[in-house]
Amino acid sequence: MQQRRLGRSGIVVSDICMGTMTFGLQCDEPTSHRICDTAFDAGIDFFDAAEIYPVPPSAERFGVTEEIVGRWLSTKPRDSVIIATKVTGPGHGWFKPPVRHGKTALDRNQIIRACEDSLRRLDTDYIDLYQTHWPDHGMPYEEVLGVLTELRDEGKVRVIGASNETCWGMMKACWAADVYDVDRYETVQNNFSLINRRCESELAQVCRREGISLLPYSPLGGGVLTGKYQDGPPPGARFTDYLTGDGERQKRMAKRFVNDRTLETTRRLTEIARGIGVSVTALAVAWSRQHDFVASTIIGATSVEQLNESLEARDLILSDEILARIDEVDFEIPTPMTEDGLRRL
Question: Active-site residue 229, yes or no?
Answer without folding.
Answer: no
